[in-house]
Each structure stands twice: as C-alpha cells, then as structure tokens.
C-alpha cells in the first residue's frame, strides 16, 4: 500500500500542469475575431432549436447529441482539462432546468440579433439567458453556467417534492443524488459526503483489481516461460506485463471519478492526475510489449544462419522504442491538454537549427545504414578499422562497439564507416599461415626432400586444412639453417578454431621431425682456428677440365630428371580465399 500512497502523492502534484495548460479567455472588450459563425448559433432562435434538438437526441440515448449540446454552452470559464466532462454534466443540468421551467415558444424568439443578452427564465437564485459572444455566436452565457448547479439543486428538490424526477438518460450522479438522504448530501471540505465515499470505493476497487490482475499476469508469464525451452525467453521478467494492471487501475479511476460529478476544483486535481497516470501506464505497457517482441525476434534470428538479422533485430527494437516514446509524448501531451499542433509548429520553425545541431547524429545514422546495406561487418566479426582492431560486440544507430583483444571496449562513431577502410577478418573463408622451418646444415638433401613430402602429407591428412592450395618447399639457405617454406590455409570459422588447428599441425610437424631424425637449426657460429703459415686446401679442377663444363656436369648428376614438364598454374587460377 505504501507504493500506492506515494503514487497518489506524486499524482496530486500534477494540477500545476492544469494551471499552465489553461487557455486564455478572450475578453468581451476585445475586438471580435474574424470567424464564420455557424448557422445554428447565429441568432437566439437558431441556438435554442439546436439546444432542443441535442436534448431530444440525448433523451433517446443517442450520444451524438452531446457535442451539439456542449456547443451551445459558454464554457470559457471552465478549465480546459475538464471542459468536456464538466460540460456534459452542466448540459444535463440545463436540460432538466429547462424541462422543469415554463415552456418556451420558439417562434417568439427573435431571429435578428439586435440585442444581447436575451433572457429566457428568471429565478430567485439565478437566470437563464443567452448572450452574443465576441465571435458572433449566441450561447448560454457564463453567468447562466456559473449559477446552474445551485439552480438545478433547488429545482430538483421542488421536482422531487412534486413527484418529478430527472431524465432517465441523465448522468448517474444526478439520478443517484436525488435518491440519497439529506445527511449524505452534506459537504465536507467542499465535497458532499456521498462523493467522498465514492472516491474511497473507486480507489479501493482500482487497487484491488490492480493487485489481482498483476498476480494473474505474473503467474501466466512464469508458466509460459517454463513451457518455453528457448534461451531468448528465459530472460523475460515476471513483471513484463505489470503495466497492464496499472493501466486497468488508471482507467477504473478515470471512469469512476467522471461518474461522480465532482466539483470543478476537485475534478481538476483528481482528473488531471488520473489522465496522466493512464497515459503513462499506456506508454509503459507499450514499452514492455516491445521488450516481449524483442525476445521473440531474437529467438527467430537465432534460428537462421544469416548474421544480418542479428544486427537488424536490435536496431528494429530501438526504432520501435523511439516511436513509442514519440507517440507516448504526444498522447500524454494531448491528455494534459497541451496544444500539440502548436508544439509541432514550433519544432518546424526550429527545424533548421535542430538539423544543424544534429548533423553528427544524421551522419551516424547514415553510417549505420551503410553498414547494414553493404554488410560491412556483423556482430562477432573480427575487424580492423584504421588502427583499431577487435571483435564487433554491438552495432547501434550512433556507434559500433569493438571488444579489443585486451578486453577493453572501443566505441567508433558510425559516421566514420562511410569513408573508413574496414578489414573484416571475420569474412575470411580461409585463414593463412606462412612460416619458415629451419633445418640444420647437417641434414642430407634426401632427408630434406623426405621431410617436405611428410609435411605435405600432414596437410592432406588434417581435416580443416585447405587441400587445393598449399606450398611446402626448400626455399633458401639461411645464415644458420636450410629454410623450408610452409604456406598453408585452414578453413576455420573463428580464431579459436584456427589456433586449435594451428597447434595440432605444428605439433605433428615436430613429431614428424623427431621420427625422421631431422634437427631444427638455431643460430650458431663455427670458429675455425688455423696455425700460422698453414693454409686450407683449395678445391681444384682435374687436369684439362673446363670449369663451366664441370659445373654443368655436376648439376646434371644431382638434379632430378623430370619425365614431363610440370604444369604451369597461372596467377588467375589461384584462389587464395
């Protein structure tokens, strides 16, 4: 109950908005506005005909007559926030007052607006008359409206004494009040006792229904989540449907307070608060429904192989929440009687300044669209953007967040994506390794050849390695080793798989070298010491042997004899992946 008491205290502060929202009342001394006067209000007779036509519709149960009836009343002194509700009650009071008074001969009412006001009935505690407004309309004037409740109370007592009653189509509070004893119609703090009791009952009923509906909705959400086996639904809160109970409470309070026919000052305080609560709960409920939709769309996106929907779902949810915020703001402003059209017109006049101030926001938005349309990267991809490198963790309207390999988060404005060079490592089909294995100079040529073929066989055996393109060759004489080039690829979906397969491949190379007795070289230096005067034997040619001829002969004796020319692979045929 403490929560509801705090809620009531906060809501009762909202009548300040009612004061700010009041429309200025035009002074009768000001010049009339240039407006077209409706034909049904242009003179006293036409106005009374309109009044009686509206009364007949309402007595027949046709609520279309209420706007017509309200149009005949001068409600400029009524707070705009409760003008419709209060105008409805005053209209019914006026209908009964006119019925209880002597009949009017419409044909005797003038059609020429030659004098104002035009008096219809005079009573000791009030008068019913028509006055011409500054804009040319004839209405039941402000003095008539202000005295109408006292006039209705006196005439209703006289009618009850004579056996007459209010109309069967009149508001409930008018009919109920006529049936209550005098003790309940006494005032306390400016409000009749039966109305105070009615407020208490309405508040209590609203709170009880809110609690009951909230418990039922919580049980339903738990049961639904328990039946569902998808991870996306397990994060749904038990309270996700809680705003629906609050909205039901607000609607019950709104309808109940409207039916009580409270005095104007009390109705302004209570009805403004309840209207605000109703609008706020509706916006809150819309937010929670968007969260529920987010869980459903996230589940559906997880069932597809495409990464595009994984990016689109968060953006769609944020768009819907922005839309709910805008519509909710307009809805709340409309319920608080704020002139939304003027507000939007003001935004239009300030549109240029807003556009200049939001230049960066618009650039970021177009950057987001560029990322989505071009599919530059997706959530989970390893990317290099300029000098920044990391895994894409989040793609928003304004920025992209990268999780670096030292676990920090970098936020990059999406505007930079329009012109930035993005290296998407996550789009690689194959992951390359280029390495040089150094064998010791003591390794025989035959063992070098055998070792290279053994490494090639490992490439052919390992399941993740690319089989159509790899190179393992003796590639150079190093300073302290015979260099073997190993140029291979893995078809790995992520970095973790690449590291695991690289680990297995390198260990198998180590085991192969150990089995073949091949030693890997490490940087060494050999120091030859020679005594003074001693010289190393120099290689010499056989007698009469030409140096060039000897070189060609030795080369032919050690070179492999090819039975056929190896196929030549053009550069365009190589698919590096």
Architecture overview:
It contains 18 helices and 13 strands. The protein is rod-shaped, with a radius of gyration of 45 Å. A hairpin with a 2-residue loop joins β4 and β5 (191-192). It has helices at residues 2-11, 15-21, 44-59, 65-70, 83-100, 142-161, 172-179, 193-227, 231-234, 242-260, 264-302, 308-335, 340-349, 351-357, 359-374, 445-461, 495-516, 547-558; strands at 118-123, 126-132, 138-140, 187-188, 191-192, 382-385, 388-395, 399-403, 409-413, 422-424, 431-439, 471-477, 482-490. The strands form 4 sheets. Strands 9-8-7-6-10 form a 5-stranded antiparallel sheet. The chain has 4 domains: 35-179, no CATH class; 195-338; 359-427, SH3 type barrels (Roll), CATH 2.30.30.60; 431-530, Alpha-Beta Plaits (2-Layer Sandwich), CATH 3.30.70.100. α5 crosses α6 (142-161), α8 runs antiparallel to α10 and α11 (264-302) packs antiparallel against α12 (308-335). Mean pLDDT is 75; it is low at 4-33. It is an alpha+beta fold and 577 residues long.
Task: Briefly summarize what is shown.
This protein is an alpha+beta fold. It is built from 18 helices and 13 strands. It starts with a helix and ends in a 19-residue tail after the last helix.
Distance from first to last alpha carbon? 67 Å
* Tally of helical segments: 18
User: Rg to the nearest angstrom?
Assistant: 45 Å
What is the strand arrangement across the widest sheet?
9-8-7-6-10
Number of beta-strand segments: 13
Q: Please state roughly what percent of the residues sit in beta strands, choosing from under 5%, 5-15%, 15-25%, 25-35%, 35-45% or over 45%.
A: 5-15%
- Content-based structural category: alpha+beta
Largest sheet: 5 strands, antiparallel
The low-confidence runs, each spanning 5 or more residues with pLDDT under 50, are 4-33
Spatial shape: rod-shaped
Number of domains: 4
Portion of residues in helices? Answer: 40-55%
**Whole-number mean pLDDT:** 75
């Amino acid at each position: 109950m403490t929560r509801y008491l705090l809620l009531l205290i906060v809501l009762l502060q909202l009548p300040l908005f009612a004061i700010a929202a009041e429309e200025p009342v035009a002074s009768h001394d000001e010049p009339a506005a240039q407006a077209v006067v409706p034909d049904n209000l242009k003179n006293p007779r036409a106005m009374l005909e309109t009044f009686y036509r509206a009364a007949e519709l309402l007595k027949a149960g046709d609520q279309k007559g209420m706007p017509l009836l309200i149009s005949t009343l001068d409600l400029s002194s009524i707070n705009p926030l409760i003008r419709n509700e209060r105008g409805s009650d005053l209209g019914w009071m006026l209908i009964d007052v006119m019925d209880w008074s002597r009949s009017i001969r419409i044909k005797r009412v003038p059609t020429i607006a030659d004098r104002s006001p035009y008096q219809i009935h005079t009573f000791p505690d009030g008068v019913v008359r028509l006055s011409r407004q500054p804009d040319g309309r004839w209405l039941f004037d402000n003095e008539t409206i202000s005295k109408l409740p006292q006039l209705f109370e006196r005439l209703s007592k006289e009618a009850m004494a004579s056996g007459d009653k209010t109309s069967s189509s009149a508001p409930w509070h008018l009919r109920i009040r006529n049936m209550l004893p005098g003790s309940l119609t006494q005032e306390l703090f400016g409000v009749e006792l039966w109305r105070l009791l009615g407020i208490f009952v309405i508040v209590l009923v609203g709170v009880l229904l809110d609690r009951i509906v909230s418990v039922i909705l919580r049980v339903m959400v738990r049961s639904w989540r328990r039946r569902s086996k998808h991870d996306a639904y397990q994060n749904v809160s038990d309270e996700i449907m809680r705003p629906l109970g609050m909205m039901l409470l607000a609607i019950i309070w709104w309808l109940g307070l409207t039916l009580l026919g409270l005095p104007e000052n009390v109705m302004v305080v209570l009805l403004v608060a309840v209207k605000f609560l109703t609008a706020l709960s509706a916006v809150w409920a819309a937010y929670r429904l968007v969260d529920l939709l987010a869980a459903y769309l996230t589940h559906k996106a997880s069932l597809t192989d495409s990464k595009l929907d994984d990016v689109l779902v968060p953006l769609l949810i944020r768009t819907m929440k922005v839309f709910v915020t805008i519509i909710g703001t307009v809805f709340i402003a409309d319920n608080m009687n704020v002139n939304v059209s003027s507000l939007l017109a003001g935004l239009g006049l300030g549109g240029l300044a807003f556009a200049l101030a939001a230049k960066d926001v618009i650039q970021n938005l177009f950057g987001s669209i560029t990322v989505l349309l071009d599919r530059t990267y997706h959530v989970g991809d390893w990317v290099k953007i300029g000098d920044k490198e990391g895994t894409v963790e989040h793609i928003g309207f304004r920025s992209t967040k990268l999780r670096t390999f030292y676990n920090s988060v970098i936020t990059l404005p999406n505007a930079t994506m329009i012109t930035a060079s993005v290296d998407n490592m996550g789009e690689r089909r194959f992951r390359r390794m280029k390495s040089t294995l150094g064998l010791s100079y003591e390794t025989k040529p035959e063992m070098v050849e055998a070792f290279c073929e053994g490494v090639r066989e490992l490439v052919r055996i390992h399941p993740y390695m690319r089989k159509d393109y790899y190179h393992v060759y003796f590639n150079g004489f190093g300073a302290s080793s015979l260099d073997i080039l190993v140029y291979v690829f893995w078809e790995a979906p992520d970095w973790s798989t690449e590291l695991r397969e690289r680990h297995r491949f390198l260990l198998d190379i180590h085991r192969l070298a150990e089995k073949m007795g091949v030693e890997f070289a490490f940087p060494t230096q050999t120091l030859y010491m020679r005594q003074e005067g001693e010289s190393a034997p120099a290689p010499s040619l056989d007698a009469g042997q030409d140096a060039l001829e000897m070189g060609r002969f030795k080369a032919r004796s050690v070179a492999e004899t090819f039975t056929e020319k190896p196929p030549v692979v053009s550069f365009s045929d190589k698919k590096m992946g």
